[in-house]
UniProtKB/TrEMBL annotation:
<dbReference type="InterPro" id="IPR029044">
    <property type="entry name" value="Nucleotide-diphossugar_trans"/>
</dbReference>
<keyword id="KW-0732">Signal</keyword>
<dbReference type="InterPro" id="IPR050186">
    <property type="entry name" value="TPT_transporter"/>
</dbReference>
<dbReference type="InterPro" id="IPR037185">
    <property type="entry name" value="EmrE-like"/>
</dbReference>
<feature type="domain" description="Sugar phosphate transporter">
    <location>
        <begin position="5"/>
        <end position="294"/>
    </location>
</feature>
<dbReference type="Pfam" id="PF04230">
    <property type="entry name" value="PS_pyruv_trans"/>
</dbReference>
<feature type="transmembrane region" description="Helical">
    <location>
        <begin position="143"/>
        <end position="161"/>
    </location>
</feature>
<feature type="transmembrane region" description="Helical">
    <location>
        <begin position="266"/>
        <end position="292"/>
    </location>
</feature>
<feature type="transmembrane region" description="Helical">
    <location>
        <begin position="198"/>
        <end position="217"/>
    </location>
</feature>
<keyword id="KW-0472">Membrane</keyword>
<feature type="transmembrane region" description="Helical">
    <location>
        <begin position="313"/>
        <end position="333"/>
    </location>
</feature>
<feature type="transmembrane region" description="Helical">
    <location>
        <begin position="167"/>
        <end position="186"/>
    </location>
</feature>
<protein>
    <recommendedName>
        <fullName>Sugar phosphate transporter domain-containing protein</fullName>
    </recommendedName>
</protein>
<keyword id="KW-1133">Transmembrane helix</keyword>
<feature type="transmembrane region" description="Helical">
    <location>
        <begin position="49"/>
        <end position="70"/>
    </location>
</feature>
<dbReference type="Pfam" id="PF03151">
    <property type="entry name" value="TPT"/>
</dbReference>
<feature type="signal peptide">
    <location>
        <begin position="1"/>
        <end position="22"/>
    </location>
</feature>
Length: 1158
């Protein structure tokens, strides 16, 4: 038996070596992981007929070696000692010849691993032929049949995942499966006709050589096509494994021999897949496992167990032979093949070098730019490209490449520019857009390139430049490209592709030079002589200076550079209102007009059009212009309506009485742009009276982002356009220190340029952002200060610069509804003495923040809810880092936490508008509250408009949280749920949520009408006048309060019981828990003083009534008395509410996204 085991080992190892060398000889490939499988496949190798020559060489070597062994070493005859059956001999010889020809043909056509897998089905044919032709074969049992089916399935799975599969290779392998079993059966039938099994090899090989001799003579001159080393190795080991195979066949039946042969193939397949770098796919691995399981199910497991039990068979000689054979195999097949495969597997877990590039432009990324990125990656394999995208369309284009080596990341400029001089440059992006027009996007790209090279280092390339056949140098030193064909200058194209280390001194100095030159020539340049910013000249000068001084000069690499021809896909221009006509007419300019343009400019990708507010017709011949229409409209000579090519965002509109007849005449234009955002309540009422859907948006200047990103205050106090009479009331030291500023540019203002006025306006914004306090009567000074966090004292009086109150009015219509945003001095109702006293009492040393944060945040949220509907503006806001609009107040001390359970909604993935209003009513009164939505259906992303506006809202899974909470408190959830409908699971969820988190719980159909009494903690509300149950629509408790814990524990122990009158058993349980143990520590409020409920019985009072005693009483309760209104089941199919009704008041008075009117 020991000898048999040795022959099995030799058979397996020799077959592995022969298979690999045969594959290499038949297809002419090298086992290199970088070779494509496509070079092995198809019929080209079959047509070459190299596989026939290889077969002839194998048999010639077999005959030579077998005859030499028998005649020289064993001194035996090649011929058998007894007469043999000619038919059996012919079938054995034919089977051997056809089987070898078919195997080599399959090697030529497909991967060797696929050939071996198909040949693993050889036992199937052996079973069938043995049953038919071999008397000692036994029966084809169910177990054998099942094993055959399993192996066939496994082979099909393997083939489905094999990229080199073709019908020619499959057919050749199947033919070999038929031929070799026939050979084995009839060699076995020849029995004891030979003294030495090698006599069989000699006779079969001799006869095969005779059959192939004619072909050998004809193709003798073409034998040099075969790789010599691989061919002779294949022939030698082909003889060795066939000799060992026949020796094993002497000891086992054909079926057992076939099963051992199958086991050998598992070993050979894995070796072939490693050497030839055949991809391991899910299906190939699955197929291998299924084939092995089918083999083991039959006799394989028994044979192996028998062999493994004979430990003495594994002599030192066998171990030495196995180790030496493996070492010889690795050495012969050039160990780099195996090591390359291992290295490839290891590199999958090592970070590849990332090449960065960016597309910052508003226009869609063109297809040829995407192709250029792919081509650059193809020329430089083994790397990945990260594209920083400034638009959602760019992100989608990157995803659509379906290339895992190309990834996208949305470009957020403040994050990219962090801790570089570019932070300050970016903070001034609104004025840069005005001064540079459409070129601004190119400047952004240059800044992004510098920031990426500074922070990330490595390689960066310009996606809009073709780099010819450029390939990345192998060294890690700094280098830059020098274009040879874009221009005659030697420095053009520098940085179009380059490599620098992280925090390179060259990039640091180039970034400083970028900001310095930009500030000198653009930001602070003279408007009438602004120079075009030439970044390439700046780079060339820096490169020349570094290389002349020999200080860290990067290597120059000359390459052909070609700018991609990009058809300008921009479909629209981006504009802003200008006031040139007004400045020329009045010979002076009010820079407050330009100040109010900057918040809109922030959201635009660039500005390349100035549209005169008083003469829209000048822009009629232009193409599509997208722009904000926030302005004061009151010039009697203005043109209205605007032409169709202007696409306005109608926010912060003020319509003066002087022009209202003209606006009324063309009211259909405003109706086509609904809803209209009004800057003040007076304009809002005018539009509503004319059946125009409108909302209060406030002034857009509330959205101005401060350029003072370092938050350094100068300590200066500005007195902006304040009447002398009011200025005289200031405390003497403040009056002495205050710096007087006027928004009107007098002499020469009429000749100023658009850009000059915008520069002057932005300089004022920068000053206000650093001031300690600003005192003003200017709306467009006060509101920007509120937006930037600068305390402002606003004097409201009838004589206001830019237009005050109409005669007889007690308030200026320009600021109605906005005065709570400031520290307002109401000069309409205050005497001079009281104003002076107010000013003396003001804390000048440390001015208090501006009041009414709630109104400021909801006006911002309302405007943003309109702006974000334009994807270009939304992307621009993200890119320039404008979000969130207000800093969130997450986890601040004493932050009030509200909970809502929204697990049962008509639309499982979104909220109905009444539930939105519930959430908004909370933020209306508590802008810094934290709202936690408990739901298994909703996602936090559905509330992005609120988080982007600065509110704090989260979504937590309901079921998981409750189960975790229950388990932590050792309550058996299964025991709890078995009580069925008798237990109100929704009410239980409310208790569990409050126990886990603490805070305030309100139902999703409740509107918060006014702020709560924060002294009321651990509070419930009576459910009826009988005071024997609780209304759990509102609760407030401390975290882990004993009442909640006791109620939850009792609920888990509670047994289902009948209702107690009109009160469910669960409600009774809660009541008795409170009454018996927590009457003194948990306060219960009367429902009438806390809730006003509208449901089916009083539906008309909410939805229809607009007058009458019941209506008046209910409206009084809602406006002045109760803290909550509960509207149950009345609004299911409604989208608009009747004007003047209580429901209209409830659902439109406590909003934070007030452009949505119901």
């Amino acid at each position: 038996m020991a000898t048999v085991v040795l022959f099995v080992a030799v058979w397996w190892i020799a077959n592995m070596v022969a298979t690999i060398s045969s594959k290499k000889a038949a297809s002419g490939i090298k086992p290199d992981a970088t070779d494509s499988l496509a070079t092995w496949t198809g019929t080209a190798a079959l047509k070459d007929l190299r596989w026939i020559e290889l077969t002839m060489l194998q048999h010639l070597f077999g005959a030579l070696l077998a005859n030499t062994w028998l005649l020289v070493f064993r001194r035996k005859s090649v011929f058998p000692k007894e007469s043999i059956n000619p038919k059996h001999m012919l079938l054995a010889v034919t089977g051997n010849l056809v089987g070898n020809l078919a195997t080599n043909a399959s090697f030529a056509a497909v991967s060797s691993s696929l050939t071996q897998v198909i040949k693993s089905c050889e036992p199937i044919f052996t079973f069938v032929f043995a049953l038919l032709f071999y008397k000692n074969s036994g029966n084809l049992t169910r177990n054998v049949l099942f094993s055959i089916i399993v192996m066939v399935v496994g082979t099909c799975l393997f083939i489905s995942g094999e990229v080199s599969f073709n019908i020619w290779g499959l057919g050749a392998a199947v033919i070999s499966n038929i031929a070799f079993p026939i050979r084995n059966i009839y060699l076995k039938k020849l029995g004891q006709s030979w003294d030495d099994p090698l006599q069989k090899i000699a006779v079969v090989s001799n006869l095969n050589v005779l059959i192939l001799l004619p072909f050998a003579i004809m193709s003798m001159s073409s034998l040099d096509k075969l790789p010599r080393l691989e061919s002779f190795t294949s022939a030698t080991f082909h003889f060795i494994y066939n000799a060992a195979s026949i020796m094993v066949l002497q000891a086992f039946s054909p079926v057992e021999h076939a099963m051992l042969n199958l086991s050998k193939r598992m070993f050979v397949i894995l070796a072939n897949m490693i050497v030839f770098s055949t991809p391991f796919t899910f299906w190939t691995v699955t197929g291998l496992l299924v084939i092995f399981s089918g083999h083991y199910n039959n006799q394989g497991g028994r044979i192996f167990m028998q062999i493994m039990k004979m430990r003495r068979c594994f002599s030192p000689a066998i171990i030495i032979f196995g180790i030496s054979s493996f070492c010889w195999f690795v050495g012969f097949f050039r160990s780099d093949a195996l090591m390359n495969q291992l290295q490839m597997q290891l590199t999958q877990y090592q970070p590849r070098e990332v090449i960065t590039t960016a597309w910052v432009y508003e226009r869609p990324i063109p297809y040829n730019v995407v192709e250029n990125i792919e081509a650059f990656l193809d020329r430089n394999p083994g790397m990945t490209v990260k594209v920083f995208c400034g638009t959602s369309q760019c992100m989608k284009a990157v995803q659509d490449t379906h290339n895992p080596e190309i990834t996208g990341e949305f470009l957020v400029l403040p994050e990219i520019f962090k801790k570089t001089p570019l932070e300050l440059w970016l903070a001034r992006h609104p004025i840069h857009k005005i001064l540079t027009g459409v070129d601004f996007e190119d400047h952004v790209y240059e800044a992004v390139r510098l920031a990426l090279l500074w922070h990330h280092g490595g390689i960066h390339f310009d996606p809009s430049i073709k780099h010819g056949e450029f390939t990345i140098p192998g060294h890690q030193e700094a280098w830059v490209s020098i274009g040879t064909n874009l221009t005659q200058t030697k420095t053009h194209g520098v940085l179009s592709v380059s490599r620098f280390p992280v925090h390179s001194a060259f990039i640091a100095n180039l970034t400083k030079a970028f900001c310095r030159e930009y500030s000198r020539n653009i930001t602070n340049g003279k408007p009438r002589s602004l120079q075009k910013f030439d970044f390439q000249r700046l780079v060339g000068n820096m490169l020349h200076r570094y290389c002349m001084s020999g200080d860290c000069c990067p290597t120059h690499i000359e390459t052909e550079l070609e700018r991609i021809s990009v058809v300008d896909a921009r479909r629209r221009h981006f504009g802003t209102l200008s006031y040139a006509s007004r400045a020329r007419r009045f010979k002076r300019a009010n820079v407050g007009d330009e100040v109010q343009s900057f918040p809109g400019i922030q959201f635009l990708p660039f500005v390349d059009r100035f549209v005169d507010r008083d003469n829209f017709n000048k822009a009629k011949r232009d193409t599509h212009i997208r722009m904000f229409f926030n302005a004061w409209y009151g010039d009697a000579g203005m043109t209205w309506p605007p032409p169709r090519n202007i696409d306005p965002i109608t926010l912060s509109v003020h319509i003066h009485n002087r022009v209202r007849p003209m606006f009324t005449k063309y009211i259909k234009y405003l109706q086509s742009k609904e809803p209209i955002g009004c800057r003040d309540s007076d304009t809002l009422e005018f539009l509503k009276q004319n059946n125009v859907e409108a909302f209060l948006s406030g002034c857009l200047t509330l959205l101005i982002q401060t350029p003072n990103i370092e938050d350094k205050r100068s300590g200066q106090i500005f007195l902006v356009d304040v009447e002398k009479a009011f200025a005289a009331l200031l405390p003497p030291d403040i009056k002495r220190r205050a710096i007087r500023v006027m928004h009107y540019k007098g002499k020469g203002g009429g000749k100023s340029t658009n850009k000059g006025r915008f520069q002057a306006a932005y300089n004022l914004i920068q000053k206000y952002s650093k001031a300690r306090v600003v005192i003003t009567q200017r709306v467009h000074c006060a509101l920007p200060c509120v937006a930037m966090g600068t305390p402002v004292i606003f004097i409201n009086f009838n004589r206001m610069p830019g237009g005050g109150a109409e005669r007889g009015l007690k308030v200026s219509p320009r600021v109605t509804g906005l005065t709570t945003l400031f520290h307002t001095i109401d000069a309409f109702n205050m005497s001079q003495e009281s104003i002076a006293q107010w000013l003396r009492d003001f804390n000048w040393r440390k001015p208090p923040p501006n009041p009414d944060v709630s109104m400021r945040m909801r006006l911002r949220a309302t405007d943003w809810n309109v702006i974000r509907q334009d994807l270009v503006l939304y992307d621009s806001a993200r890119k320039f880092g404008l979000l969130p609009l207000s800093p969130p107040a997450t986890n601040t001390p004493n932050q009030l936490v509200f909970h809502l359970i929204l697990n049962r909604t008509r639309n499982l993935t979104s909220l109905d508008w009444p539930k939105w209003r519930t959430i908004e009513s909370i933020f209306y009164h508590y802008p810094h509250a934290r709202i936690i939505i408990h739901s298994d259906n909703l996602q936090t992303g559905q509330f992005d408009v609120l988080t982007e506006s600065g509110y704090t809202i989260e979504v937590h899974g309901l079921s998981a949280n409750i189960v975790n909470n229950i388990m932590k408190n050792k309550i058996d959830i299964k025991h709890f749920r078995r009580f069925g409908s008798g237990l109100n699971e929704e009410d239980f969820a409310k208790l569990a949520v409050l126990f886990q988190w603490g805070g305030v719980y309100i139902d999703a159909d409740v509107i918060l009408l006014r702020q709560l009494d924060l002294s009321l903690i651990n509070t419930l509300v009576w459910g009826s006048e009988k005071q024997n149950s609780f209304d759990l629509s509102f609760m407030r408790f401390e975290r882990r309060h004993p009442f909640l814990e006791t109620a939850i524990l009792k609920a888990s122990e509670w047994q289902a019981s009948p209702k107690d009158g009109n009160v469910s058993a669960f409600e009774a349980l809660l009541f008795h828990t409170w009454f018996n143990n927590f009457k003194n520590s948990v306060k219960v409020l009367p429902q009438g003083d806390f809730f006003k409920q509208f449901s089916a019985p009083n539906e008309r009072d909410c939805l229809q009534s607009t007058f009458g005693p019941v209506f008046e009483s209910s409206m009084k309760q809602v406006r002045l008395e109760v803290r909550f209104a509960k509207v149950k089941g009345l609004l299911t199919n409604l989208s608009k509410l009747k004007n003047g009704t209580i429901c209209k008041y409830l659902f439109n008075s406590f909003c934070v996204l007030c452009n949505n009117m119901y």
